[in-house]
Amino acid sequence: MSISLLADIGGTNTRFVLANNNCDVLFDSYEAFRNTSAESPELLIKRYMKRQGIDSCDHVVLALAAPVNEEEVVLTNHNWRFTVKSISAASMSNDVLFINDLEALGYGLSELGAEQLQHLAGPRSLDKKGPRIVIGAGTGFNAAIVTQLENGEHFVKAMEAGHMTLTVETQDEFELWQYLAKGRGRASVERAISGRGIEQTYQWFCQRNSTPVVHMNARDISIAASNQSDLMAEKTMQTIANIFARTIGDLVLAFLPTGGIFLSGSVTRAMMPWLRRASFFDAFVAKGRQYDLMHQFPLYILNDDQAALHGCKIAAKQHSLRLRGM
Amino acid sequence: MSISLLADIGGTNTRFVLANNNCDVLFDSYEAFRNTSAESPELLIKRYMKRQGIDSCDHVVLALAAPVNEEEVVLTNHNWRFTVKSISAASMSNDVLFINDLEALGYGLSELGAEQLQHLAGPRSLDKKGPRIVIGAGTGFNAAIVTQLENGEHFVKAMEAGHMTLTVETQDEFELWQYLAKGRGRASVERAISGRGIEQTYQWFCQRNSTPVVHMNARDISIAASNQSDLMAEKTMQTIANIFARTIGDLVLAFLPTGGIFLSGSVTRAMMPWLRRASFFDAFVAKGRQYDLMHQFPLYILNDDQAALHGCKIAAKQHSLRLRGM
Known about the structure:
The structure is a homodimer. Chain A is α/β, with parallel strands linked by helices. Chain A folds into 2 domains: 4-107, Nucleotidyltransferase, domain 5; 114-303, Hexokinase, domain 1. Helix content of chain A is 38%, strand content 21%. Chain A contains 12 helices and 13 strands. Chain A has helices at residues 41-52, 84-91, 101-108, 171-181, 189-192, 195-208, 218-226, 231-255, 266-270, 272-275, 278-285, 307-323, and strands at residues 4-9, 13-19, 31-34, 59-64, 72-74, 81-83, 96-100, 117-121, 132-137, 141-148, 154-158, 260-264, 299-302. Chain A has a 6-stranded mixed β-sheet with strand order 8-13-12-9-10-11, with helices on both faces. In chain A, strands 3-2-1-4-7 form a 5-stranded mixed β-sheet, sandwiched between helices. Chain A has a two-stranded antiparallel ribbon with strand order 5-6. In chain A, a hairpin with a 3-residue loop joins strand 1 and strand 2. In chain A, helix 1 (41-52) packs parallel to helix 2 (84-91) and helix 8 runs parallel beside helix 11 (278-285).
């Protein structure tokens, strides 16, 4: 039996699972580790393989929170560097594939069941052949586009949407934009829609209202806003939710994803109470003459820690079919 | 011999050409008419067919400056309304295909020779398999994405990029944004990057500088700016060119078009002297950490009145192969 090792290496945790030659995930093989528990991903892979009682793998697919087009991968939020060669040596595999984590989520979409998806707004029926976008808002911001080809395969491509220009629509937002742009000359989307963006926006609200900064991280700010225990935190979450809605709307006009918009990431989860408000959908559809068009796109929340692993499996399958010329 | 009638129906002119069953354009069949010379597109088609000595066509492909997903097409800038049925009756053809004019340009890209493309900036070599975007800036603003499939066919899709939020980076630009947003609550990309956008931006510069409005239309404004005969016109063209560069840059981050960016339309042509300045490319690549990435995309000007007709031909070919199940 051939064995595939699938891993999702995030900024904080690494998740593993094994799959057989039919690309069925092996029951009970799922394990998650803190990245800080190992000195390198190579050592973490060896540890996992030992625990699973395997010496080598036929295929390895790693979903990475990093650009994967360079020879050496430098993880975006953890001090790990590695190459296809070093992972190949650690896993005793000749077939190692790196994919971007948002691309993995994109591949995983087709296998998600109703319990892993939460309908947020727009039509409930998905145009299964229509293009989809998966948006990740967490440490950073990005989007991947998923197109279904005529042979049923999915073509998935991550963009650099987090680096697009941050938009503003009010004088207050423009002042926030200037604060976020300080020392850089510009503010990109992920300067606002990210964990760090929430923290900086909160600091900006505290500063202009001469209020002490009580909360230091995005998680505490979102909790204080939910509890209504800190007005500056509430203003922060409302402002970021509004910018998030507008930004998603702009990406919808760029990609026309009739197959749906799938929101993921820790910032998406922290913003859930705000995403459910009518004001969020109002800001999303506020595209002038395209107001009606904007109602045609289903918005979903992607609730699954293992979605990227499912995506690795599908990417591995497509990759190996392609290698075999099928 | 089977005959295809190809037409590009713009807001002002309609261009025709015939093609044979191999989709080769018939020499000498090209003709262009002012839309005002006929009461309806049906009558114009009949007139053209009569002049060419044909009674019926096997295929008809129309490239339209209008959304084509509705049953009835309403031309964006000319008072013509028509349907597949009415065009079918006029042309005596059972196979009528409507495509968006930017999609037609997208299909046409693959057939353009060096003389129809003018290199503007970025690498000169095109990644022929990479995705391309064609951007039209004229009466309105839009973009289409062109992806080459594994079978060599092109998949082309027009977006609604003109309705995305107009970005700003300075207090002056935000004040212009507010002027353009007046009565609407928001300003979209095409409120600035269009003929009307040039006119309104010029009026805004005149108003804030207490200078009389000398020029009424975009063409005159661009000529006065080129001549350096009107400082407000110069400021206008420089501002719009800067916004154009930034907007193209944002679309590049959304689509990563390694196959190239192709600029077309009357506003693109009017802005040529500004597009050639170093400040244009500087604004295009000013994407923070993505500065190096931004140098990897070739920028071209598309110089061909007949490019959309070439695109109709290719669309017709793909369409008929698909109908025949090939």
